[in-house]
Amino acid sequence: MIGEIDIFGVFVPAVLVLMLVAYLLNIVIRAVLTRVGFYRFVWHRSIFDLGIYVLVLGAVVVLSHRFMT
C-alpha cells in the first residue's frame, strides 16, 4: 500500500481515504440495520456501531491491499 494519494495536487494519507470509504459503507450498513429493526436487539447502539465500523475498516484495508498488489 502506498503512503499517500494525490487528489487534485493535494497529497492525503491513504489511511484517510480508506477510513472515508469505510465510513460511507458504515452509513449504508447502519441504515439497513435501522430499517430492518435490528437495533431492538442491541444493548448499546454506539458501541455496536463502533464495532461495525472497525470491522468494515479492517475489511476495506485488507481488500485494498489485495487489489493493489
Give me a quick take on this structure:
This is Membrane protein. The chain is mostly helical and 69 residues long.
Report on this model:
The protein has one domain (4-68). The chain has 2 helices and 2 strands. Strands 1-2 form a two-stranded antiparallel sheet. The radius of gyration is 15 Å and the shape is elongated. 68% of the residues lie in helices and 12% in strands. Helix 1 (14-36) crosses helix 2. Strand 1 and strand 2 (10-13) form a beta hairpin. The chain starts with a strand and ends with a helix.
SSE layout and pairings?
Blueprint: E1 4-7, E2 10-13, H1 14-36, H2 45-68
Antiparallel strand pairs: 1-2
Helix pairs in contact: 1-2
Distance between the termini: 8 Å
Tell me how many strands there are. Answer: 2
Mean pLDDT over the full residue set:
93
Q: Please tally the helical runs, counting DSSP H or I stretches of 4 or more residues.
A: 2
Poorly predicted segments: none
Which series of helices and strands comes N to C? EEHH
**Compute the gyration radius: what is it?**
15 Å
Number of domains: 1
Q: Describe the biggest sheet? A: 2 strands, antiparallel
Neighbour order of strands in the largest sheet: 1-2
The geometry reads as elongated
Strand content: 5-15%
Q: Strand pairing plus helix content: what structural class? A: mainly alpha
Helical percent range?
55-70%
Transmembrane segments: 7-29, 41-63
Pfam families: DUF1656 (PF07869)
InterPro entries: DUF1656
Protein name: Membrane protein
